[in-house]
Amino acid sequence: MSQGPSILLIDDEAQIRKFLRIALSAQGYRVLEAANGEDGLAQAALHSPDLVVLDLGLPDLDGQQVLRGLREWSQVPVLVLSVRASEGEKVLALDGGANDYVTKPFGIQEFLARVRVLLRQGQGQGREALPASIACGALNIDLAYRRVSLDGAEIALTPKEYAVLALLAQHLGRVVTQQQLLRDVWGPSHIGDSHYLRVVVGHLRQKLGDDPAAPRYLITEAGVGYRLRDSA
Question: Could you tell me the domains of the chain?
Answer without folding.
Answer: 6-122 (3.40.50.2300), 133-228 (1.10.10.10)
